[in-house]
Fold:
Amino acid sequence: MERIAQGIVRRRGLVLAAAILLLIPALLGAAATRINYDILTYLPPELDSMLGEAALENDFNLASTGMVTVEGMPLGEMLEMKAEMEQVEGVEQVFWLSDIIDPAIPREMLPEGIRQAMYGENATLMLVRFSEPSASKSTMDAVAKLKGLLKEHSFFGGMSVILQDTKALVDKEMPLYILCAVGASLLILFLAMESTLVPVLFMLGLLFPILYNFGTNYFLGQISYITQALSTVLQLGVTMDFSIFLLHRYEEEKQRSSDKEQAMARAIVNTFSSVTASSLTTISGFLALCTMRLTLGRDIGIVMAKGVALGVICTITVLPSLILTFDRAVEKHRHRAVIPQLRRTSQFVTRHPGPILAVFLAVMVPFTLAQSKTGVYYTLFDSLPQDLTGIVGTNKLKENFGMTTSHFILVDEAMGGEELEALCRDLENVEGITQAVSVSGLLPSGFDFGMLPEDIAQLAQSGGKKLILANSAYKSGTGELTAQLEEMDALIKAADPAGVITGEGAMTKDLIEIADIDFANVSAASIAAVFLIILLSFRSLSIPVLLVASIESAIFINMGIPYFTGTKLPFIASIVIGTVQLGATVDYAILMATRFREERQRGLGPREAAQVACRYCSQSILSSGLTFFAATIGVSAISRMELLKSICLLISRGALISMFVIIVILPCLLQLLDPLILHTTLHWMGRPQKAEKQPTIERKELA
Structure:
């Protein structure tokens, strides 16, 4: 490592040139990476709902649909709008009454099935079928064009429309997320650092791994919009620690050597050694998300783990080159740091460890109970602004047709017409079902099915399956809909053991069941991985317990607060936050424990060592934690997407809580449990050696 460090220092110009050249493929890769806006596509493919969705897409061409509610529009104008919509690239068909019967026939004379399916109290319904899946670029572009063709009193709803709304909103807000995160982080760094130029160099240094991370996402094929929106903010907050550690080590080495290049080389070697454990814990925490059956976790986990690894590499290559290149300017623009070492706090904490821990444990009891009762919601559309085109259009479907959620039911094509109609009648008797109908059931009695155009016939039967559409008055993700789906599934399996239900409601039900299991799996995997890495790093049985318990207590407090404030969290936030907070802030605990061990090995007693560790680590922890807080709280404040707002609020609040626990509670634990640590840790006190004097610490300061 020493040779590598020397090479980086001596050839810093070459390092910077190579780093800049690598930005070209990174930018190309980032531009070519597909963004997925449909969370439901991350469900396991073997589920019935996903098998049904695949059949809808491949056989019926119905996996991607939108519904237009038209209120009080003259027939001629409506037919003109329908014709214009059918000309849009990416639209397979716009299905309405005129496709199967003369629309001039008075409504009262229409067959009952058609009247119920196509007309509401004061509205009619058009079904838009797209050529490609909802989250594809083709469908997104088509939805955007269709919005411009809608006439007055026309409302566009359905999953495809809402996904396009989501894309437009994320694309609009993403630059604001980055600007807010960078601006807020710079403000904290200006207060924390002793040079005005250092925060700018830090941001330049982080620009490289962030762009590299975006570029290498190309090899994953696609990433979710949640990953895209959060990765920059999280990577900035999580990897800022490494930059701070490098700079502090460089300043320390400069005091020991007049040669700046030699000082930086030593700083690189020591920083790499010190951040290895902390970066591995962070990476393993993110990789724990890969244990989720919902592959959205793998998406977030791989991207963030990759971002942390790239952050470490750039911290020991690009950042040293930048610091040495601009070293004179850094020295010229020095000022006093505003964020101090917490000297008085460290004295108070180490003088009263027992009472502090007693109060903390008493506080933890209600928060531990509360975090298990915090409400979670799975209705993904509730996390979006309610004035979006798709949300308004979907609400109109409920208002005019009782169509809050649509179920697509696939049964064997061998099922006869009478059996099919009997099943539809049984389904309509299920509580909350407003209508259950097959396309063949919409046709007048005696109508020859073979006379239908191919694209219309495809709606009724394709790929060896027949299709039934059932409309529900219940919302996706609710207990009522779950009970409804279970009752429907029993009726369908009785008629056809291979029959399946799909659609937003069925997939959301599967999402709920999987998410509950994923939450437990991710928590266990992240704790086990972090525990193992700390155990190997410290060669201790007790230190991993203390460090992980400290962060987990901070997570419990963070997750318990929504219960007391009456706030419900989106399901993905409750799964992700534990892993992110553990992986991102366990670094603070490792830093504190490492400094405590160093001071014990230098001959200080448990109380004095805890005080020194608390005092001298507090500045780095405050700088890093406040930067993490600043990077995420701004996004929470400006985002109109409740999902991203909730995740960022939890992360920002978690950073503050973790800071408090590590600065105040962990030193008390280390001080009081030092005898236990001594007997459960290999070479805790180190090998016998002469105690090094610490010139900045005087005994009178520790009294």
Residues 691-703 have pLDDT under 50 and may be disordered. The first strand starts at residue 34 and ends at 36. The chain is about 65% helix and 10% strand.
